[in-house]
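Hi V.,

Quick status before I head out on leave. The structure for the redesign project is tokenized and pasted below; the design run finished overnight.
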């Protein structure tokens, strides 16, 4: 049989395709033995830093630069109590932290640490009127300035909004990044799952003390079950020979699998008072002995969101700018990106964070 006949024979073409794909698959499999060593070498944070303040499990990190800061007023990153904060400084070229450091800001990040069973009684009051107040008091002494810039991501954004409403005299500018504020809309599966008729948070916390990281991780995976459980493994297998892809994939997955528990009472209050009762938008949320009134926020506000965020949909973040009394308000919406992409995506690095740095530079000193 000549070559032309072979090419026109569907059976032979199918056999050749099978041989080629099998050969390519076996070639990709040769990378498997080195994956574990590569995972162990992944750095958790790339920008040089030092710990300047500690309290219980909390560490305040100060990011270092070869040049003195251009702006005296520090910016303090407040991360969520879920997962670990190095997603904000994941790798070179994919670091929100590095954007602000390179732009000349005196940059700090609050790392809440890993809670133990003994921390199950900690409340939002302990974090907002305790730890966060103490961190800013320390920075007041360190810098001689009365007000700081705050940037809160995800749950840390909601906490930053609460803090600013209660302590506006300590905040010069407030930046929210994918922050859940308004829980009235039901376009997020988390809102549906946490309804009082679907989820008894009291039984969970009474049984475990803290919210188990396994519950949180499985919930996040099930927000996009096809993408996370089917498409992602297939994409990994098909591209595991690509060095750049492999580096990005393993670095991101290391963070995604690096889960921690959430202190029980904080989780209980977050579910009941925010997801189930939506008290924050009604100015009825009680934190300690104080009512959080978002109308008391008068500083400049920058609200950053991603259009395809299935963890914190825009419907949860967008209303914030209309709930505060600030006259200087701006919203940045990154189209086509998700919750994590807002921190590490290439488009976010090019389009969002230079713009955010410029916004803050015009409003600080």
């Amino acid at each position: 049989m000549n070559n032309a006949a072979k090419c026109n024979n569907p059976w032979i073409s199918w056999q050749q395709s099978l041989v080629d794909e099998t050969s390519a698959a076996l070639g990709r499999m040769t990378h498997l033995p080195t994956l574990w060593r590569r995972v162990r070498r992944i750095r958790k944070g790339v920008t040089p830093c030092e710990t300047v303040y500690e309290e219980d499990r909390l560490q305040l990190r100060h990011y270092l630069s070869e040049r003195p800061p251009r702006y005296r007023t520090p910016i303090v990153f407040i991360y969520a109590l879920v997962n670990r904060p190095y997603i904000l400084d994941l790798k070179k070229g994919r670091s929100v932290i590095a954007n602000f450091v390179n732009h000349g800001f005196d940059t700090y990040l609050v790392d809440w640490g890993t809670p133990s069973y003994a921390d199950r009684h900690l409340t939002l009051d302990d974090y907002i009127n305790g730890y966060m107040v103490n961190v800013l008091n320390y920075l007041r002494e360190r810098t001689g300035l009365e007000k700081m810039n705050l940037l809160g991501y995800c749950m840390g954004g909601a906490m930053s909004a609460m803090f600013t409403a209660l302590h506006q005299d300590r905040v010069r500018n407030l930046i929210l990044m994918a922050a859940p504020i308004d829980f009235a809309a039901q376009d997020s599966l988390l809102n549906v799952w946490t309804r009082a008729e679907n989820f008894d948070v009291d039984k969970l916390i009474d049984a475990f003390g803290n919210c188990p990281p396994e519950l949180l991780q499985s919930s996040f995976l099930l927000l996009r079950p096809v993408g996370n459980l089917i498409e992602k493994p297939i994409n990994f297998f098909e591209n595991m020979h690509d060095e750049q892809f492999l580096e990005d994939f393993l670095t991101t997955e290391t963070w995604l699998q690096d889960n921690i528990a959430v202190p029980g009472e904080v989780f209980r209050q977050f579910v009941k008072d925010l997801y189930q009762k939506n008290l924050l938008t009604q100015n009825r949320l009680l934190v300690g002995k104080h009512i959080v009134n978002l109308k008391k926020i008068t500083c400049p506000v920058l609200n950053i969101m991603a259009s395809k965020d299935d963890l914190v949909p825009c419907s949860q973040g967008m209303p914030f700018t209309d709930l505060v009394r600030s006259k200087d308000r701006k919203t940045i919406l990154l189209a086509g990106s998700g919750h994590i992409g807002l921190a590490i995506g290439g488009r976010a690095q090019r389009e969002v964070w230079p713009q955010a740095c410029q916004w803050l530079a015009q409003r600080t000193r």
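Above is the designed sequence. The two ends are 80 Å apart (CA to CA).

G. will cover questions while I'm gone.

Best,
W.
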